[in-house]
Amino acid sequence: MSSDVESKFHFSREMVSGEIYRKYEKAMRKHWKVEDLDFTQDALDWQRITPEQQKGLLGITIRFLAGEQAVTDELVPMLAASHALRRFDWTMFLATFLLEEAKHAEFFMRWHEAVVGIVDPSEVAPHFLTRGKTVDPTGRFEVRDVMHEALPNYGRILHEAALGGTEKEIERAFVQFSAAYNGFVEGVLTMPSYEIVIDTTTQWDAFPTLNRGFKLILADEGRHITFGTTACRMLIEKDPSYEEVVHEVFDAYRGNIVGLVEYQKAVPGLDVGKYQTMKVRHYRNRCREMGVQPDDTLIEQILDPSIDFVVGVEAG
Ligand SMILES: [Fe+2]
Ligand SMILES: [Fe+2]
Question: What's the whole-model pTM score?
Answer without folding.
Answer: 0.93
